[in-house]
Amino acid sequence: MQVLGIALSLFLLFFAIFQLLLVMGAPYGEAAWGGRQGKILPRNYRIASAFSCLFFIISILVVLSATGIINLFRSSFVGGYMWFLTVYLGLGIIMNAISRSKIERYWAPVIAVMFILCLMILL
Question: For residue range 26-40, what is the model confidence (pLDDT) as tens digits?
Answer without folding.
Answer: 999 999 999 999 999
